[in-house]
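WARN retry 2 of 3 for item q-0093 after timeout on previous attempt; input resubmitted unchanged.
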Amino acid sequence: MIVAIDPGTSGCIAVLSPSGSLVDFCHMPTAKIGKRNRVNAAAIWGFLAPYADQVQHAYIEKVQSMPGQGVASMFSFGHAAGLVEGVVAGMQVPMTLVTPQSWKKHHGLIGKDKDASRTRCIQLYPNCRELDLKAKGQALADAILIGLYGMAHG
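OK item q-0093 returned
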Protein backbone atom coordinates (compact mmCIF):
# COMPACT_ATOMS: atom_id res chain seq x y z
CA MET A 1 0.00 0.00 0.00
CA ILE A 2 0.97 3.61 -0.32
CA VAL A 3 0.06 6.72 1.65
CA ALA A 4 -0.63 9.97 -0.16
CA ILE A 5 -0.86 13.24 1.72
CA ASP A 6 -2.11 16.69 0.88
CA PRO A 7 -0.60 18.50 3.90
CA GLY A 8 -2.01 21.49 5.67
CA THR A 9 -4.79 21.98 8.16
CA SER A 10 -7.44 21.46 5.47
CA GLY A 11 -5.59 18.60 3.76
CA CYS A 12 -6.20 14.87 3.63
CA ILE A 13 -4.41 11.55 4.01
CA ALA A 14 -5.30 8.70 1.63
CA VAL A 15 -4.27 5.06 1.77
CA LEU A 16 -4.23 3.37 -1.64
CA SER A 17 -3.82 -0.28 -2.54
CA PRO A 18 -1.17 -1.32 -5.10
CA SER A 19 -3.91 -1.32 -7.75
CA GLY A 20 -4.89 2.26 -6.88
CA SER A 21 -8.08 1.45 -4.97
CA LEU A 22 -8.92 3.81 -2.14
CA VAL A 23 -8.51 1.75 1.05
CA ASP A 24 -9.06 4.49 3.62
CA PHE A 25 -8.72 8.22 4.13
CA CYS A 26 -8.65 10.76 6.91
CA HIS A 27 -9.21 14.48 6.67
CA MET A 28 -6.28 16.19 8.33
CA PRO A 29 -6.87 15.99 12.06
CA THR A 30 -6.43 19.30 13.82
CA ALA A 31 -6.52 20.73 17.30
CA LYS A 32 -7.27 24.30 18.30
CA ILE A 33 -4.21 25.91 19.88
CA GLY A 34 -4.95 29.47 20.86
CA LYS A 35 -6.74 31.07 17.93
CA ARG A 36 -5.29 28.75 15.29
CA ASN A 37 -5.90 25.20 14.17
CA ARG A 38 -2.77 23.07 14.18
CA VAL A 39 -2.28 19.63 12.70
CA ASN A 40 -2.59 16.92 15.36
CA ALA A 41 0.48 14.71 14.90
CA ALA A 42 -0.73 12.11 17.42
CA ALA A 43 -3.98 11.67 15.48
CA ILE A 44 -2.05 11.23 12.22
CA TRP A 45 0.05 8.57 13.91
CA GLY A 46 -3.12 6.90 15.21
CA PHE A 47 -4.67 6.84 11.73
CA LEU A 48 -1.55 5.48 10.00
CA ALA A 49 -0.44 3.01 12.70
CA PRO A 50 -2.73 0.13 11.62
CA TYR A 51 -1.21 0.35 8.11
CA ALA A 52 2.43 0.84 9.15
CA ASP A 53 3.58 -2.69 8.30
CA GLN A 54 1.81 -2.63 4.94
CA VAL A 55 2.83 0.80 3.65
CA GLN A 56 5.64 0.66 1.12
CA HIS A 57 5.96 4.38 0.44
CA ALA A 58 4.45 7.76 1.24
CA TYR A 59 4.01 10.58 -1.28
CA ILE A 60 3.59 14.01 0.26
CA GLU A 61 2.90 17.21 -1.60
CA LYS A 62 5.94 19.47 -1.37
CA VAL A 63 4.82 22.80 0.03
CA GLN A 64 6.37 26.19 -0.60
CA SER A 65 5.52 29.78 0.09
CA MET A 66 3.36 31.60 -2.41
CA PRO A 67 3.31 35.33 -3.19
CA GLY A 68 0.58 37.19 -1.36
CA GLN A 69 0.26 34.76 1.53
CA GLY A 70 0.74 36.19 4.97
CA VAL A 71 3.59 35.27 7.26
CA ALA A 72 1.32 33.62 9.84
CA SER A 73 -0.50 31.47 7.27
CA MET A 74 2.77 30.35 5.68
CA PHE A 75 4.20 29.47 9.09
CA SER A 76 1.09 27.43 9.83
CA PHE A 77 1.27 25.64 6.46
CA GLY A 78 4.97 24.87 6.87
CA HIS A 79 4.39 23.70 10.43
CA ALA A 80 1.67 21.31 9.25
CA ALA A 81 3.83 19.92 6.46
CA GLY A 82 6.74 19.43 8.84
CA LEU A 83 4.58 17.53 11.32
CA VAL A 84 3.27 15.27 8.56
CA GLU A 85 6.79 14.53 7.30
CA GLY A 86 7.97 13.92 10.88
CA VAL A 87 5.22 11.40 11.59
CA VAL A 88 5.93 9.51 8.35
CA ALA A 89 9.67 9.54 9.05
CA GLY A 90 9.06 8.38 12.63
CA MET A 91 7.11 5.43 11.27
CA GLN A 92 10.14 4.62 9.09
CA VAL A 93 8.10 4.77 5.91
CA PRO A 94 10.11 5.84 2.85
CA MET A 95 8.76 9.11 1.46
CA THR A 96 8.94 11.27 -1.63
CA LEU A 97 7.97 14.92 -1.78
CA VAL A 98 5.98 15.66 -4.92
CA THR A 99 5.60 19.15 -6.36
CA PRO A 100 2.07 20.30 -7.22
CA GLN A 101 3.27 21.01 -10.77
CA SER A 102 4.42 17.38 -11.21
CA TRP A 103 1.27 15.60 -10.14
CA LYS A 104 -1.02 18.14 -11.81
CA LYS A 105 0.86 17.87 -15.12
CA HIS A 106 0.66 14.06 -14.93
CA HIS A 107 -3.13 14.26 -14.56
CA GLY A 108 -3.60 16.98 -17.20
CA LEU A 109 -4.66 19.61 -14.68
CA ILE A 110 -2.20 22.42 -15.44
CA GLY A 111 -4.14 25.58 -16.30
CA LYS A 112 -7.43 24.11 -15.06
CA ASP A 113 -9.44 25.46 -12.15
CA LYS A 114 -8.93 24.16 -8.64
CA ASP A 115 -12.00 21.93 -8.82
CA ALA A 116 -10.63 20.00 -11.82
CA SER A 117 -8.83 17.51 -9.57
CA ARG A 118 -12.06 16.72 -7.74
CA THR A 119 -13.86 16.26 -11.06
CA ARG A 120 -11.12 13.89 -12.26
CA CYS A 121 -11.31 11.84 -9.08
CA ILE A 122 -15.09 11.58 -9.32
CA GLN A 123 -14.50 10.06 -12.78
CA LEU A 124 -11.95 7.59 -11.36
CA TYR A 125 -13.79 6.78 -8.11
CA PRO A 126 -17.50 7.18 -8.95
CA ASN A 127 -18.66 5.40 -5.78
CA CYS A 128 -16.72 7.64 -3.38
CA ARG A 129 -19.39 10.01 -2.09
CA GLU A 130 -16.86 11.99 -0.04
CA LEU A 131 -15.64 13.48 -3.32
CA ASP A 132 -19.04 15.15 -3.73
CA LEU A 133 -18.22 17.53 -0.87
CA LYS A 134 -16.67 20.76 -2.12
CA ALA A 135 -13.72 21.51 0.21
CA LYS A 136 -13.24 18.11 1.85
CA GLY A 137 -13.74 16.37 -1.48
CA GLN A 138 -11.10 18.64 -2.99
CA ALA A 139 -8.55 17.70 -0.32
CA LEU A 140 -9.27 13.99 -0.75
CA ALA A 141 -9.01 14.29 -4.54
CA ASP A 142 -5.65 16.04 -4.29
CA ALA A 143 -4.33 13.33 -1.95
CA ILE A 144 -5.54 10.54 -4.25
CA LEU A 145 -4.03 12.16 -7.33
CA ILE A 146 -0.72 12.70 -5.52
CA GLY A 147 -0.75 8.98 -4.69
CA LEU A 148 -1.60 7.88 -8.22
CA TYR A 149 1.21 10.10 -9.52
CA GLY A 150 3.61 8.51 -7.05
CA MET A 151 2.55 5.02 -8.06
CA ALA A 152 3.14 5.84 -11.74
CA HIS A 153 6.53 7.47 -11.16
CA GLY A 154 7.81 5.68 -8.04
